[in-house]
Design brief:
The complex is a heterotrimer of chains A (95), B (548) and C (206).
Chain A (H helix, E strand, L loop, with lengths): L9 H24 L5 H22 L7 H27 L1
Chain B lengths: L18 H5 L4 H29 L10 H36 L8 H20 L18 H4 L4 H28 L12 H33 L12 H12 L1 H22 L6 H14 L15 H29 L8 H24 L1 H7 L3 H25 L1 H5 L5 H27 L14 H31 L43 H9 L5
Helix pairs in contact in B: 2-3, 2-4, 2-17, 3-6, 3-7, 3-9, 3-14, 4-6, 6-7, 7-8, 7-9, 7-10, 9-10, 9-11, 9-12, 9-14, 10-11, 11-12, 12-14, 12-16, 14-16, 16-17
Chain C lengths: L14 H32 L1 H8 L4 H26 L3 H31 L7 H4 L3 H36 L9 H26 L2
Helix pairs in contact in C: 1-6, 1-7, 2-6, 3-4, 3-7, 4-6, 6-7
The chains are: A mainly alpha (95), B mainly alpha (548), C mainly alpha (206).
Chain lengths: 95, 548, 206
Amino acid sequence: MSKHSHSPSYKYDLITFAALMILTIITIWASYATGGTSVLAVSVAMLIATIKATFVVRNFMHIKYDHIIYKVFIGIVMLLFLSFIVLLGIDYALR
Amino acid sequence: MDNHAIDSHLNFYETKRGLFSWIFTLDHKRIALLYLYSISLFFLVGVALGFLMRLELFSPGGQVMDPRTYNQVFTFHGVIMIFLVIIPSIPAVFGNFFLPIMIGTDDVALPRLNLFSWWLYIFGALMALGTLMFGNGPADTGWTFYAPYSVTSDTNVSMLLLAAFILGFSSILTGLNFIVTIHRLRAPQMPWFRMPLFAWGLYATAWIQLLATPIVGITLLMVVMERTFGIGLFDPSLGGDPILYQHLFWIYSHPVVYVMILPAMGIVSEVIPTSAQRTIFGYKAIALSSMAIAFLGYFVWGHHMFTSGMSDQARVVFSFITFLVAIPTAIKVFNWIATLYKGSIYITPNLLWSTAFIFNFLIGGLTGLINGALAADVHVHDTTYIVAHFHYTMFGGTIFVFLGALHYWFPKIWGRMYNQKLAYWALGLTFVGFNILYGAMLTVGVKGMPRRYYDYLPQFEFLNKVATVGSWILIIGILLMIYNLIRSARKGEIAPRNPWNGVTLEWQVPSPPPLHNFDRPFILSEKGPYDFSLLEKINEVEQKPLDH
Amino acid sequence: MGYFKVPISGHNRDDEGSKLGMWLFLFTEILLFGGLFLVYAIYRFQYFEEFRIIAEHMDITLGAANTVILITSSLTVALSITAMKKDQDNIAVLLLFVTIALALGFMVNKFFEWNEHIHHGLVMGADVFNNLQHGEGMFLFLYYFMTGLHGLHVVVGAIILAVVIAKIINGKITKDNFSLHENGGLYWHLVDLIWIYLFPLFYLLH
């Protein structure tokens, strides 16, 4: 399965790169626009970072062309990490 | 490793000889034995430390050591038994040896990584032992390394933490290897739900090793940093948060108890159908309950921290999720018993080890429910009740199965039969000694004896004496078993291919297996791995002499 | 005579298996950093104000520069794999050299940044540091630990890519057998991935 079904193209990589650069600019701008630090600023920053991460994983790391099981695994890992945060939050926010 | 010209009438011991052919081997069977011998060695060290602790507690007041030494002994006992024995035990020994054979292939997917993880294990073990020589004595914090004491203790905690970090990576790489092996190397006629249940147990285990271990790894590094820089991460006297340490520690260390028990449950699911000569009851339920336990195990860590000062809401949530774990566990136990029901049972030491496991694990599991219940746990927390509960699940559970598996697969690994009579005696002594020792500890814990204490009040003396005597019986049983196995491995009767009339693939290869495991095409049923209607066909192979 | 050759052998070349192994390893790495992200989350939550104050010492320009460097290096690695698939070995090697140069640039940048902080006493053990609020100290500690661990991964990633270059030149990695190249690339993207989160958490939120 090492032969991908798509034909390799430089253009595709360059478009992904452009998207990442634009998102970097947006996140810097957003950090000023949201006033730096607040729950809102943190959420926006994390949201944009996650969009960027999705681009890297999907396009650069070729998850788009991989077997579906990789997406399932990534989903499970993210779910685990988020549930750690939630469970820790239940303790820390309500202590 | 591409020595495909080797004949199958040579077993894997004979194909190559010499020390280097062992310590640099890529053969999964040899790596398994490397693990077995190193783990056995550390197990005996751990047992010796446990023996000393029991001796110390024989009577109130100091007996054989001073309090500081006692702290170091129970810490070292814990670290050795957890990180060097139980965590690697079943996956690294029996998983390595039998997973490739059971799924019909000739090695794990990443053989070099497999060897590397054994070397990491040895390196970590040497580092742990190094704390005996370097610095201010071995750690005295308990194996949990709770902050703030692990930060302030003047003993050599840092080196032990780094050792645990390295051992963690050894465990991760073994798990990683098994996941890839199970995904990529199953025989073509073996879809997921025709895998033996041991493979399912290992698969669930591997995911825990992979995803939980790094968290404790980084946490232990944080403690090292805290000890080095004193920045107040976990130490409350510097403004740190010791409960955060407990959270991070148990995020790993609770799931890891399933690393210890799931493969053991997998082995029981192998031994019981073979002994009852019938297919397992509820195959899918057992397979999926392993995955369910692995998954739920991630969300219950807080039940170790009910008295730590965590928020009430968190305590209730963790207590609730903890009860959920009992469901898949009970599914397994009911299915095992249902498999035995009306089976044509052959009583062998293998089966008795497994039933001893079920007995011990019932006690371990039910006492666990009491710990999981928030209100009850507050009272038994930090008593020897907890210690006994833990040993009922880990020793009475995992180690009993490990020893049982040693008997079950003994003919396959060493190609000889063991002395059954001695095996029964060893099992009997171990079982009785075990239950006296930890039964007494359970009881004295409920009466209020705190754990990890060097001294105790006079009213606890009788039960402590009972426990210590139990430990002697237990050790005699273990030594007798080791004597029996070593002697049988050298002088026992030559074992046939299929001494217990099993039907999974490891019984279709010679004992011991050749380097590439299979000497002829294997027989798989469409009805799953435990189809005993194939038994005759499988055993025909034995009578036909090999045509060489 | 002989033996039975199993239909699916562990000794066969299995690119998909290696890739799966690499991904699993990346999961482990993600959770290794995950532990630190958890600590960050808890302390950020507890010391919101102090985290904000100390974060003002962070140089957004340097951080943004390093972000651009890492994203560009991610691009060059991705391009080199594309080149490899197109059987353009020379371009692939060139792009990998660019990647390693960018990695070097990242580390030099990092060195100056740390040097600046240490010069101002914003480091464990210095007097200035000891007089900081607890939350501020925590921020700096996490900053050094997380970016330090990340920097270690940059170095390891660069070494892996250097090995890939050597193997391409030796002809051991080819159009039909570039599993190591692909996996090295995956590792490098992980380095980028972690930085994508580190950048806003340490540089932007103040």
